[in-house]
Design goal:
With 249 residues, the protein is α/β, with parallel strands linked by helices. It contains seven helices and eight strands; from the N terminus they run ααββββαβααβαββα. 26% of the residues lie in helices and 11% in strands. The longest helix has 15 residues.
Length: 249
């Protein structure tokens, strides 16, 4: 079986970032118990965040590394990993479940979520997304935990997330902007997403690990090229990049 490889170093160099500044750090401003600054600074936020799958939402190639059938990992509650035919374990990047939980729990549906992936195994990807579940609540000390504690008890507006006593959502359920998972150009993915959601390209923020997919910027989409998967730090950098492109930061 091919080894699951990190893409972090290559993409960091493409971005012009140094390896010491982009990581799954637990010490960044968006990994503290206080609210993420991008939620409290009163500046605009993108209406739609779109994610690639392979080496963006999860650290593997869906069409190479997984051998079907898959099943939930034993002893995982909520299901945070799946096991394939060979007994290999697969899960999202470490901070991704909590990021998805936060974004899908914002009052009033401030930010919608969608998937745009060129994976040729769309049904398998959907099965993984249906099997994995998000944490039911944000653990203390992670970004957004204070805000969600307020919104889930009625103090922060419309409730979209689950309380800590409930079973977490299936990961697939938070992507209310749709899932475009098939081979072809990302331009096609975004054209379909835009028609479905009615959201202008300029209001979209896209996270992907492949430089050629920056072609979506010709539509007006902001793309954040990431090196080692979705993290709190990459999320913040992407939002800052989107704001700069809109002339508001």
């Amino acid at each position: 079986m091919p080894r699951k490889l990190s893409k972090r170093t290559t993409t960091l160099l493409q971005n012009g970032d140094s390896p010491s500044t982009t990581s799954h750090s637990t010490t960044s401003s968006t990994s503290s118990s206080s609210l993420p600054t991008w939620l409290t600074d009163s500046l605009p936020l993108p209406r739609l965040i779109v994610l690639d799958l392979d080496y963006t939402l999860w650290p593997f190639y869906s069409d190479i590394h997984i051998s079907t059938p898959i099943r939930p990992a034993p002893g995982s509650n909520p299901t945070s990993a799946v096991i394939d035919r060979n007994g290999e374990s697969f899960s999202l990047y470490p901070e991704a479940p909590h990021i998805l939980h936060l974004l899908s729990s914002l009052p009033g549906g401030q930010i919608r979520l969608a998937i745009a992936s060129k994976s040729p195994v769309g049904e398998l990807c959907r099965e993984v997304l249906k099997t994995l579940r998000l944490p039911a609540g944000m653990p203390a000390g992670t970004a957004g935990s204070t805000m969600l504690a307020g919104s889930e008890d009625g103090g922060g507006g419309a409730k979209r997330g689950s309380s800590s006593s409930e079973k977490g959502k299936k990961v697939i359920e938070v992507f209310d902007g749709g899932l475009e998972i098939y081979e072809g150009t990302k331009l096609r993915h975004f054209e379909v997403i835009s028609r479905r959601t009615g959201i202008p390209y300029e209001q979209m923020l896209f996270f992907d690990d492949e430089r050629p997919n920056r072609e979506v910027e010709t539509l007006g989409v902001t793309m954040r090229l990431i090196g080692d998967g979705l993290s709190w730090e990459e999320l913040e950098k992407g939002i800052q990049q989107w704001r700069r492109n809109r002339g508001v930061a």
